[in-house]
Structures are given as C-alpha cells and as structure tokens.
C-alpha cells in the first residue's frame, strides 16, 4: 500500500468517524455550532469587515505603493521584506488574524512580493488584535484589565522577534534585492501612488462594490472554519481524545514546571483560542501560570485560525509550513515574555494599588478602558452590523449576476 493510498484511507476514516460522532452527539454538536456562530456573528465579522474593505480600497487607490516606498528603509533591513510589508503589519496588528494572511496573499497575487518575501511576511503579520486581548480575554475571562497590557505586549514583542528570526528564511533561495532596497523620496512615492491608481482603472463605485464582495466572501469562509472547529473541539472532548492528549501535554507542562491541570485548557486553546482562554481562567492554580499558558496558545493562534490562513494561502504559491513553524516559535516567545514581564507590568502595578489605593485609569481593574468599552459595544451592536452588510453583499451579488 502506497503512502498516497494510506493517506486517502486515513482521511476517509477520520471523515466517517466525525460524521458518526455528529450523529451520536447531535445536541452537543448543535450547541457548539451555535457558540461558534455567535462568536462569528457578534465579533469576528463586524470587527474584521471594515479593515478588509479599507485594505482593498487602499490597495486599489495605490496607497499601499506609497506606504511601501516610504517604509522600504525600515522593513527591508529589519525583516527583509519590501516596504509594503509595513502596511500589512499595521493592518494585521489593528484588525487581528487572518488579515495579515489575506493582505499578504493579495500582494503576492499582484507581484508586489516574491514567494520567499511573502512567506516571511505572513509569519509575523498575523496576530490577535488589541480588542480581543483586552476585551475578551483580560476583562471578559480573567476580569482584570491589567492583564491586557501584559498579554498584549508579550504577544506583540514575540511577533517582532519571530519577524526578525524569519528574515533568515529562504536566505539561500533568494536572489539579491539590493536594487529594490533604495529609499524613494516623497515625490517619487506619490508618483507611484498615481501610477498604481491609473493602472487599476476601476471607478470608485466599482472598487467599493468589489471590496465589499471580496471581504464578505472571505469572512463567510472564516465563519465556516470558526463553527467547524468549535464543533470539532467539542466532539474530541466527548469521545475522550482530549483526555488522551491531556495526559501527553501534562508531561510537557511538568517539564516547564507548570501544573498538569492546565493541560485541558492548553489543548482547547490549541484548537480554538476563545474556549481555551475561558477554561484557563477557571483553573484553580496561580494567575502567572494561567497567563503563561494563555499567552502561548494566543500566539500559536489555534488550529481554527491556522486552517483559515491555510485556505487563504492555498490561492497562491505561499507555503503554509513556514507559517506553522513561526506560530510555534511565537507561542514560545510570547510565553517567555509573559514570564519576564510579569513582575514589572503586573505585580508592581498591583502593589502600587495596594500601597496608594490608586493606579493609572487605563490599568485599573474593572476600569472603563476604551478598548474594553469598544469590545462591549461590538458585542452589543455587532449582529446588526453583520446583518446589514450581509444584505448589502446579497444586493451587490444579485446586481452583478443580473448584469451578466
């Protein structure tokens, strides 16, 4: 039996087992599906769609070429990617995953990145957005806004280290690009912007319609993955596979002097971040140990997010393997930074509170931090926004079909 035949047999068997599990546990599968749908409907769609649409408009109007020309002296020496990588990095940081992968794939399709440069860029531009870290995890699960700053800095510092490390990826495969690394003046940068807009050629109305349709299609795909992995995580727990994996992960946690009680939250977080963070916050162990494990799987991104990225990258020649390796390193670096920054960013702040009875408002526990406030508003008004944009998408799609 060849390897290909064996692989086919295994994939078919796994699919059959999954289908059988859904029939055996229909109620639990439905609840997990609704939970995933609720997360996508209330948070994922309304938080990502504006950034996706704006990104498409910026690319169409040539603004990305302008930013790329100005940021070339920074991005090329530091990460060995073109200046347009700075735009992807900023948008990925602000909107969260998988925006970095979507924009990297788009720029690769437009030949603004080489294959190696795209693989470097996608490895460090996919990160969790501040809203999710402060609103959902720090305030929502741990009920402590002070942890938001610790988790966020650990996450983003780890991402920067991964980006610097991945600059050596494909070093021997890449041709010299010194001729592209020269800095362009402001006049030349604006000239590039104008040339890019003329080359695109689409009127503003068409560009906006295309941006909405492309963004909604991507988010519908993301929603499918969120629901699928929410159900898969629940099924694995019900049939006992999660418990088996927990025994293995408890050995790894013991090696790092972490309690084995965190093995179940770690496994859940590796599959789906939100559930893992909720479970970690409820474990009876020290807060530092919870934060270290949460920081790891938050940086690892979870198989749900990685499947989304893999689906987006499949439309290009960008390989998924470098991205996956980068996520492992990002998880380790983020956990290490959480340990190192624990005392200066958390303990010192809580000690200040106990000593003086006050602390900076943006760090105070239960404070109305603006990120937390935005998160609560997003959860409240997100479904309405999602519904309106889906109706807009259906209108644009039907109009396009009738025009043909």
Automatic annotation (TrEMBL):
Signal peptide: none annotated. Keywords: Membrane, Transmembrane, Transmembrane helix. Residues 43-140, 220-314 form the Nucleoside transporter/FeoB GTPase Gate domain. Pfam families: Gate. The chain crosses the membrane at residues 47-71, 78-97, 131-157, 235-255, 292-312, 324-342, 374-396. It comes from the Bacteria. This is Sporulation integral membrane protein YlbJ. It comes from Halalkalibacter suaedae.
């Amino acid at each position: 039996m060849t390897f290909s035949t064996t692989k086919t047999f295994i994939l078919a068997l796994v699919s059959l087992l999954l289908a059988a599990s859904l029939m055996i546990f229909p109620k639990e599968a439905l609840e997990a599906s609704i939970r995933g749908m609720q997360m996508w409907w209330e948070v994922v769609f309304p938080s990502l769609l504006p950034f996706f649409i704006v990104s498409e408009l910026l690319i169409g109007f040539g603004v990305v070429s302008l930013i790329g020309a100005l940021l070339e002296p920074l991005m090329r020496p530091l990460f060995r990617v073109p200046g347009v990588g700075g735009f992807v990095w900023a948008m990925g940081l602000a909107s969260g995953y998988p925006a970095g992968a979507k924009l990297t794939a788009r720029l690769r399709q437009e030949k603004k990145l080489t294959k190696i440069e795209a693989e470097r860029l996608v490895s460090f531009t996919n990160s969790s957005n501040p809203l999710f870290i402060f609103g959902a995890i720090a305030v929502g699960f741990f009920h402590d806004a002070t942890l938001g700053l610790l988790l966020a800095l650990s996450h983003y510092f780890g991402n920067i280290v991964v980006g610097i490390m991945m600059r050596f990826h494909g070093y021997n495969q890449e041709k010299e690009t010194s001729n592209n690394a020269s800095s362009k003046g402001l006049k030349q940068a604006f000239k590039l912007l104008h040339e890019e807009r003329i080359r695109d050629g689409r009127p503003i109305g068409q560009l906006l319609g295309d941006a909405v349709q492309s963004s909604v299609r991507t988010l519908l795909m993301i929603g499918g993955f969120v629901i699928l992995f929410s159900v898969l995580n629940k099924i694995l727990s019900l049939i006992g596979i999660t418990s088996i994996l927990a025994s293995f992960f408890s050995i790894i946690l013991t090696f790092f002097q972490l309690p084995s009680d965190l093995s179940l939250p770690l496994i859940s977080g590796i599959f789906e971040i939100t559930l893992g963070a909720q479970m970690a916050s409820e474990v009876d162990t020290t807060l530092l140990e919870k934060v270290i494990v949460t920081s790891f799987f938050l940086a690892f991104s979870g198989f749900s997010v990685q499947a989304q990225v893999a689906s987006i990258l499949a439309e290009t020649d960008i390989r998924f393997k470098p991205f996956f390796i980068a996520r492992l390193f990002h998880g380790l670096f983020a956990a290490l930074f959480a340990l190192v920054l624990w005392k200066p960013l958390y303990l010192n702040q809580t000690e200040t509170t106990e000593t003086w009875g006050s602390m900076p408002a943006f760090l105070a526990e239960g404070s109305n931090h603006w990120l937390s406030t935005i998160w609560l508003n997003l959860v409240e008004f997100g479904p309405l926004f999602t519904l309106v944009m889906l109706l807009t998408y259906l209108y644009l799609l039907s109009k396009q079909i009738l025009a043909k």
